Amino acid sequence: MWEEKYQIINCHQSLFEYNQFIHSYFKLYKRYGDVLLARLFYQDIKSWALTNQFDVVTYIPASPSHLQARGFDPVYELYSDIFDLVPLLIKSDADKPQAQKNRWERLQTPQTFSAIPELTEIQKDKRILILDDIYTTGRTLMYAHDIFLRAGFQNISTFSLSR
Predict the structure, then answer these.
(1) Interacting residues of 148 by C-beta distance below 8 A, sequence separation 6+
(2) Using CA atoms, how far apart are residues 91 and 84, in angstroms rounded to an integer?
(3) Pairing mode of beta strands 89-91, 56-59
C-alpha cells in the first residue's frame, strides 16, 4: 500500500514481531512510565545499528501532551544511548492517541508532523534513518517519511523495535 501511495520500495526493518510480550513491555514502558525499560533491548538494537550505517538518524518525537503526561519521550529514550539522534520532526497533538484507534482510524489520521528549520541545512544525498518504537499500520512512519521526501531526500529508511 505504501509503495503505491509514495512510490517507494518498502525500506522498513524491525527486530521483533509484535506479540503479547512486546505488548506487555510497551504497556509497562509507555503507559506506566517505567523509563528504565528503555535499556531492555539495548544489545539487540546496538547489534542492528553496528551492521546498518546511516548519515543522519532521527526519531518520531512524542507530542507535547504525551511528553508532558509521561515526563519522557519513549522513542528517544529507547534509542538515545545507541544512535546520535538528530531531532528533525515536530509532532502536533492528535485528536486521540494512536493506541486508542483501530486500523481504519489510524490510516485516516491526518499528517501530524512538521520539519524543524534545520532540516533544510542537511545535504539531500544523506542516508536518513527514522526510528519509531512500534510499526502497526505504518501510518506514523509514512507521514514522517513524507516530510523528508518532500524536502528532497531520496535515501530514507525506517526502523522500529517491533512490527
Answers:
(1) 115, 119, 128, 130, 156
(2) 20
(3) unpaired
Spell out the long-range contacts of 143-147 with Cβ–Cβ below 8 A and sequence spacing 24 or more: 143/109, 143/111, 143/112, 143/113, 144/60, 144/89, 144/113, 145/6, 145/8, 146/6, 146/111, 147/89, 147/113, 147/114, 147/115, 147/119
Q: Is the distance from CB of 87 to CB of 114 less than 8 angstroms?
A: no
- Whole-angstrom distance, CA of residue 68 vs CA of residue 5: 34
The verdict on pTM exceeding 0.85 is yes
Residue 86: all three cell numbers together: 538528530
- Which helix (H) or strand (E) covers residue 52, if one does? none
Residue 88 to residue 67: CA distance in whole angstroms:
16
Per-residue pLDDT for the chain (163 aa), expressed as one digit of tens each? 656 665 555 689 999 999 999 999 999 999 999 999 999 999 999 999 999 999 999 999 999 999 999 999 999 999 999 999 999 999 998 776 777 788 888 778 889 999 999 999 999 999 999 999 999 888 899 999 999 999 999 999 999 999 9
8 A C-beta contact, residue 81 and residue 40: no
